[in-house]
Amino acid sequence: MIRALLVSLLLIACGDDAARDAGSDAGTDAGTDAGTDAGSDAAPAELRALASAPPYADENETITLDARDSTGALTYAWDLGDGRQIDASPSPTAEASWPVPGRYSVVLTVTGPSGSRTDGVVVTVTAPRVHAPTQSGTIAALPGGRIVALSTDADLLTVIRQDDFSVVTRIETPDDPRTVTPWMRSDGLWLAVPCQRASTLLLVRDDDSSRVEIAMPRASRPYGALPVGDRLFVSLQGTGELAEISGDTLVARREALPDARGVALTPDGRIAVARWRSPNNEAEIAFLDPDGDAERVTLAFDPQESTDTESGGVPSYLDQVLFDPTG
Hints:
single chain, mainly beta, disordered N terminus, five-stranded mixed sheet
């Protein structure tokens, strides 16, 4: 009797273990099968090609072509736009350079299980910069990520932050300001603002903490200002001269050309002065050495016929002149 009871209990215990083992196996199999099936049923990423690259590069400068924002791709290939290609590779980035200046249409081709896709970017390659352009205008960059903008109608300078365009300060000017030019002197940064109707050159700190007004010759109509070291040169449109400022004083006037307006520094250190309204036969620009000779050159006649968007003939209304950073 007792022996039979023990056998029954033993059989029941073994049955529970078997059930647990069966349940465990079932759970494992179910989980594995479910996970495998779910993974195999998931849709693959859509195949998309997204290319990026620096928009500008110097000749022979190595840049990175980047396709990491592409999706669903297995290989990446590049056409550099000059007949050269980078073969397909599993790497989404590649390095490239161009030996000749130009605008190159770079094409990315990505390949995946569903086929291939393309995307393109344009890289402009230029000769190395050898000249930092310096000229007068109505907008100028300041240290510390700031910009100064001139409102000729409101007689007002506005200094703003470049990152969020918030206003730092507003500075009133004399009547009819024409251009603004930063001038770094030994005593700090000043803004030079020729004011035509007032016949005045305003020198003002960029925070308006200090200002000086220098009287220009009567009816001289000062227009552009150009710093050259510790001196400032101002074009006088009314008299066709270039005025030289040292410190806070007008120290000299030199003949430039009639209707003198835009001024810029050339790569060889001379001062270029543009004639605003050209005579009938040719446009004129004067080149003056800060301490010496002057030379006058002409711009070529343009023989093309006038259209809705372009005008041939004699170049005129030369408001500003600027020299290419490559020299």
